[in-house]
Structures are given as structure tokens and as C-alpha cells.
Amino acid sequence: MNTLRQDSLAGIVVFLVALPLCLGIAQASGLPPFVGLLTGIIGGLVVTALSPSRFAVSGPAAGLVTIVVAAIESLGSFSLFLMALVLAGALQLLFGILRAGRFISLVPASVIKGMLAAIGILLIMQQIPVALGTAEETGLAEVVQGNAAFSVTAIAVAAGGLLVLWLWGSPLIRRVKSLRWIPGPLIAVLLGCVTTLLLTHFAPQQLAALPRITLPAFGSLGDLLGELESPAWSAWRNPSVWVVAVTLALVASLETLLSQEALKKLRPQNPPPSPNREMVAQGVGNLLSGVLGAMPITAVIVRSSVNVSNGAQSKLSIFIHGVLLLICGLWFSGLLTLIPLASLAAVLLYTGYKLATPRLFIEQFRQGAAQYVPFLATIGGIIAFGMLAGIGIGLATQMAFSLWRSHRHSLQLARYDDHYVLRIQQNLTFMHNPHLLALLAKIPEKSVVIVEHDSVGYLDPDVRAVLDDFAENAASALISGRWPAADLNGRLVRPLRDPSDCQAP
């Protein structure tokens, strides 16, 4: 009974947090708000039933807004995007079956942080025109150029929402226990609703300057489903659809697994949830979302952390949040039309800021070029070329840095009196040959060269060929101990030159 009470409270709070985010993310994606509501319902009911985690809350994620917007624009229609989402869900299912969840550890932290920061920046760029009350389809470029008309009312609502969100994150509010459980996004949205009601009664002529959510009235679940769009099934042959599908599958999987890793630190589970089973659950959820006409689903750390912090004990809290979203969509859609778009923009602007906070940039710069260069490369690549290309650029930059640092420290040449010591400090491959040749070229003729390789277990045949060639053709004497074997039989390779043949310079 105590568990039921705790789960019920947590479920209600998560619902209050999820409601404005579901509506806002759909609106930011250029889709009807009820699409975001449906996505939250699928995530809260279907994905939760299949997920191995007791605390992870799934639904529409702000991090995928930019991908959804760009994908719908590039494909030309929402139905084509839905087909890409169906394929993305199938790919996630395949990831889970093939046990690909473990490969999350291969993605460097700098690239992950760069991806999140880029998502935050893009989210801010997209929501600034909405917060300013500009006309629909107005972009940030038009705002900067001064070609857009602003709404003072919308600006005031957005500014009030941002102020509320800032206050709710401050220590002042956190000290008040009675306010701690009330989510800041809900207060920001309620402030907007109050503004709508006041304008309706006292200044109805100002309502036109305050765009609001538009929702059809649903009498039943069938009415809701009748408003939804179906995927263009024949589009599976379109290569562009597959590009979007792969992008969605990779980014959604990455965000889900990152959320799970973060959740482990907040509320450990024993045994820990399987990432492969989570991929299967997310795959089923996204497949169903594509079929029903919803949005991409991921596990979301914001809602998950709210769930944990409010004392959730089981999956029941997440089910309760999903049921409440369903009830709200079916019978209280009229109340949702009171919400100004500027209030939702304020919530998303704050979310974007939290993803791309200045502290994150400072931390990356303090860690040196090996961290901040791939970090900035990922951000620049995503903003300039899209999510998948940006992540690829970040990974390539990180690999280049890792290879450079590996080459830099793999070999060391030092002079001691009348001889040179070449220290091999790690296993060498053919990619180390340019560095090795450069060091050997620095050794004067008729020098004694000693090779130290005690900590090395393997030398690539190409590397040994370079050393053999140096021993045969150079005027220097090359002394080696026992070379590491190239096979598993412990075979020892003879010294390149007998030490007795060495002559001091």
C-alpha cells in the first residue's frame, strides 16, 4: 500500500512534467500537439511494459526535434517520415537482437557532450522566433534581419515563463518543501494559461497576438486515431527514407542508452537493466509510433530523474503517467487550448540552455585540445551538416586525435654518451612506420643503436621489416634483445646484428 502511494505521487508529478514537454516538442517539430501527446502515451504504456528498467520514462525527446524538423523538410511529407520511423524501430529491434547495446561504450564522451550541446543550441535557435510571437514559419534568420513582426504579449509570456523556470531551479525554491514537488515547467505553462484567461475577459483584442495550441476535440480513442496520419508504406525503397531511418535509430538509441547510464547513478538497480532489452523495447515503441502517426520515442533523463526523485518504487508510476496523458488527451483537450505557444517555447528554451550550458563549454576547454576539439567539431558538424554527419565528424576528429597521441608516445629516441636508445613503449602496427622512419633518420652513421622493447608483446611484420632494413643497410649497429613473437608459439626472432659487431662512434 505504501508502494502504491509513492508510485501514485511520482506518476502524477511525472505527468505534470511530461504534459507541457509532449505538447511543446510536437509544436516545435511542426506537428499537431496531440501527436506529442500520443507519443507520450505510447512511451508511458507500451515501452514501459517491455523495458527492463523500473524507473526510465520514455516519450518524445527535445533532442530529436531538430532531426524531425530536418527530416520532414527533406522528405517532403510527414507520411514519408513515418515510414522512416517504422524502419528506425525495426533497426532498433535488430540492434537489440544483435546485442549492440554494449557498443555505447565506444562513443567518446566528447562526442556525446558535443551532440547534446548542439541539440540545445539548435533548440534555442528554433524557439526564439516562437518566443517572440512571430508569424508561423518565421525563421531565426528573418528575425535577425529584422523582417519579422513581434508580439509584445508573447514576449511577456515567454519572459515570465523563463523567469519562473529560473526561480524554480534556484536554491530559494528548493528550500521550500511544499514547492519542491511542483515542476517548474507546469508553473510556466499555468502562468501562460492564466494570461490567456485574463486577456479573454479584459483584452480580447490582444488574443490574436498570442498564438495558442490548437487541438481537435476527441470524444473517444477512435476519434483521436482518426486524426492521425499513416506511413507511406511504398516509400521503403526511397534511399532518403533509409538515411533518416538510420539517423533516427542511431541517435534515439544513443540518447536512450545515455539516459540509462545517467539513471544508474541516480537509482542503481540490481541487476542493472540490459541495454539490449531496452533496445528491443524502444524499437517496438518507435515501430508502433510510426504505424500510428506519432513521433520518435526515447528514454528521457529529465522525466526519469523526476520519477526517481519523487519516490517511485516500480513501473506503476510510469503507467500512471501514461494513463493520465491518455485521459487528458481524450477528455480535457479543451483546457489544453488555453496554453500559449510562447509558454511552451520558454520551456524548450530553458531545456536547450540546460543542454548547452556555458559550464559544459568551460569544462571541455579545461580538459585540453584532445577533448574540446572533437567537442567543437561535433557541434559545428551537426549545426552545419545534420545530426548523423556531425556525429561522424566528431568521431573522426576524436580518432585522429587518439591516433596522433598514440603515435607521439609510442616511440622515443634518446642519446646516452656514445650510443642511441630507441624505446618501443607499446605494440606497433604499420601505421607507426612513418614515425619510426623519421626517428631512425635522425641517427647519425656509425652509431650504436639499442632497441628497448621489454613492455611490447607484438610488433607488426611491417614494423619489423623497417627495422630489418635499417639493420641491413644503415652504417649504424643495431642491437636488440629478443623480439616479441608474431605468433602464439612464443617464437623468438634472432637479434638483427650480433652485439660483438658493434663499434662505438
Protein described:
The protein has 505 residues and is mostly helical. It has two domains: 2-360, no CATH class; 417-501, Transcription Regulator spoIIAA. The protein has helices at 2-28, 33-50, 65-75, 78-97, 109-131, 140-145, 152-168, 171-174, 177-180, 184-202, 221-226, 239-266, 275-292, 301-309, 316-331, 333-336, 341-355, 358-366, 369-385, 387-410, 433-441, 461-473, and strands spanning 57-59, 298-300, 411-416, 419-424, 448-452, 477-480. A hairpin with a 2-residue loop joins β3 and β4. The longest helix is centred in the middle third of the chain and has 28 residues, at 239-266. It is elongated. The N and C termini lie far apart (88 Å).
Feature tags:
mainly alpha; Transcription Regulator spoIIAA; four-stranded mixed sheet; two-stranded antiparallel ribbon
N-end to C-end Cα span: 88 Å
Q: Biggest β-sheet, characterized?
A: 4 strands, mixed
Spatial order of the strands in the main sheet?
3-4-5-6
User: Structural class given helices, strands, pairing?
Assistant: mainly alpha
Tell me the radius of gyration.
29 Å
Overall pLDDT metric: 77
Number of E-type strands: 6
Relative strand content: 5-15%
Shape: elongated
List low-pLDDT spans. 485-505
